[in-house]
Amino acid sequence: MKRVAIAGAGIGGLSAAARLAKRGYLVDVYEKNSVAGGKATERLVTTPAGRFRWDCGPSLLTMPHLLEELFAFCDERLEDHLTLHRIDTSCRYHWTDGTVIDENSSFWNLPPVRHYLDYARGLYELSAPAFLERAPRDWWKAFNADLLTHLKHLPKFMNLQSMAELNRSFFEDPHLCQIFDRFATYNGSSPFRTLSTFAIIPYVEAEFGAWYPEGGIARIPDALVNLARRQGVRFHFNHEVTDLDDLEADVRLCNGDIITAHQKWLPESVAGHDMLNHDLACSGWIMLLGLKKRFPRLEHHNILFSDHYRQEFDDIFSRRRLPAEPTIYIASTSKHPKSTDAPEGCENWFVMVNAPAVAPLERKGYEQVVFDRLRAFGVTLAPDDILHQESFSAEEFATRHNAWKGSLYGWASHSIATALFRPPMQHPHHQDLYFTGGTTHPGGGIPLVLLSGKIASDMIASDVPPL
To answer: CA 434, CA 255: separation in Å to the nearest integer?
Structure first.
């Protein structure tokens, strides 16, 4: 039997591990941290008022059928191991002019939004089978009678408008423009620089919904570890791989940051220096708050928009500093009906501001910038309201997750090359070395890294059969 060594137990690596073991490979997974999940981690803190829990990475799930397919591949049922709840209002958007818009079924059925989604559906129907669901080397295998009917949408991929320009061609309301601009940040990019093809992102959220696992996002990697173990995968936690050549196996699969892998974990003679020639996706400035009061005006997921959105992205990507007037994301999982993530009468806030990918990042005193900005929305926090507070940013992402300079997604999608072609999933000089995860094909986020693990396992099965 062929041996596969996987460096990293992120969701992409877990997806690949379970599939490869099911196919008959001997699989070992090596993880630098004490738990699996990569950036899909959680934090638990006990205060005099009781216990708080936060999701510290992804905060919702779309395309849950990909998890169902993974469990089905292993002859199991997802619902026997993980309970998912659909979120009716996937996000509540706030502006300082008093406007509040809920992203729910009524929102998706607004006539201008419906028109936009009809346009974006064509992008998805053409790109999903040819790009998202298979290795770039196998794109041609997608061409069949069904795909030919969607070729009429090909000109949309030739549209060199930015996402922001496309949005303004569909919407007159500046609030709607800002909502749809915001989806570019799902892959760490600026809507004013990334291509309009990323209109596919809001379509996916509208079509497949927003879901939340009972017990928190960390229950997803927990379920995947157990699934992989039932297939025979062996896990080695607290085991950091710093040289991919040290992995003794027939096949090596790197589930770490692909830029870090090329710059640090491979011999200098084959290091991918060209990987540094592109904009990095943003990082995040994070604050965890345990609050001893409740805020009824906030939903599970909230966006409090900057009044100067373009300036915010110029701060991040041009001036490479924390935004002077940030858009603030707040997730409070304690608002979920079955949540036990905060004591009675309290709330847990995961607060995130998009930040430049630089490490170390000077952030002293930025908490006050965020608190001052919250007051502009009528959200006031007194010192006595805060039972727990901590913050972290790019430097910690670089340390905890080996993210290159703290970037959450590797390359930003600011050019045709980086929008359509992620770093390759197989090393050109090491044919037994493959890559999976959010910094390679097809991109970041739980659904795409699940697909990345599937694609990597398919490539390995094709190139190096298990027996």
So the answer is: 9
